[in-house]
């Protein structure tokens, strides 16, 4: 009897996983915080108007801590050399390389839920990025602050 291979699954979107990061209240309005999510360092920003955004933690220029940057509207300015990024898209507004953004939402009870994707980072034209999975911090620290551990 001849065995035929099983049909390959249909192409689909990049794999995703959701992680609950805890209450939004742990991030004061107008600030960002780093989280370690499934081995990836992610910066989550709580805008003064209540909106939340998430990006890679490390600036693609020289790995500055974006969570410690200056928030203004929906932009973040890196605290090291002032590269500026759009939090909605990751587009560089000042600098040559974009950042990875992640979908983040709030539950009815005010918890942050982050969706990780495995899509590759797309550098801006002419720029070079370290790529996805790049982590600035060890698993135990982020600029002197503990990184909240989350599920995978
Ligand atoms: S490290 Fe962010 S602008 Fe240089």
The description of the largest β-sheet is: 4 strands, antiparallel
Strand arrangement, major sheet: 2-3-4-9
Shape, per Cα inertia axes: globular
CATH topology assignment of the domain at 17-117? Rieske Iron-sulfur Protein
Bound compounds, each kind once, are: FE2/S2 (inorganic) cluster
Protein structure class: mainly beta
Proportion of residues in β-strands: 25-35%
Query: What's the total count of β strands?
Result: 11
- CATH architecture heading of the domain at 17-117: 3-layer Sandwich
- Average pLDDT value? 80
Alpha plus pi helix count: 0
Q: What is the straight-line distance between the termini?
A: 42 Å
Helix content: under 10%
The CATH superfamily name of the domain at 17-117 is Rieske [2Fe-2S] iron-sulphur domain
Stretches with pLDDT under 50, minimum 5 residues? 1-5, 7-11, 132-147
Regarding CATH, which class of the domain at 17-117? Mainly Beta
Radius of gyration: 17 Å
- Helix-strand string: EEEEEEEEEEE
Region (Disordered): 1-25, 121-152
Organism: uncultured Armatimonadetes bacterium
Domain Rieske: 19-113
GO molecular function: 2 iron, 2 sulfur cluster binding; metal ion binding; monooxygenase activity; oxidoreductase activity, acting on paired donors, with incorporation or reduction of molecular oxygen
């Amino acid at each position: 009897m001849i065995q035929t291979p099983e049909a390959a699954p249909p192409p689909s979107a990049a794999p995703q996983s959701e992680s609950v990061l805890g209450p939004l209240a742990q991030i004061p309005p107008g600030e960002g915080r780093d989280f370690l999510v499934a081995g990836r360092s992610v910066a989550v920003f709580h805008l003064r108007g209540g909106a939340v955004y998430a990006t890679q933690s490390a600036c693609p220029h020289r790995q500055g801590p974006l969570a410690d940057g200056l928030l203004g509207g929906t932009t973040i300015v890196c605290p090291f050399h002032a590269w500026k990024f759009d939090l909605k898209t990751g587009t560089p507004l000042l600098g040559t390389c974009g950042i990875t953004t992640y979908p983040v939402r709030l539950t009815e009870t005010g918890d942050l839920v982050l969706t990780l994707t495995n899509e590759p980072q797309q550098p801006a034209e002419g720029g070079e990025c370290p790529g996805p999975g790049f982590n600035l911090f060890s698993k135990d620290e982020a600029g002197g602050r503990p990184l909240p551990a989350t599920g995978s």
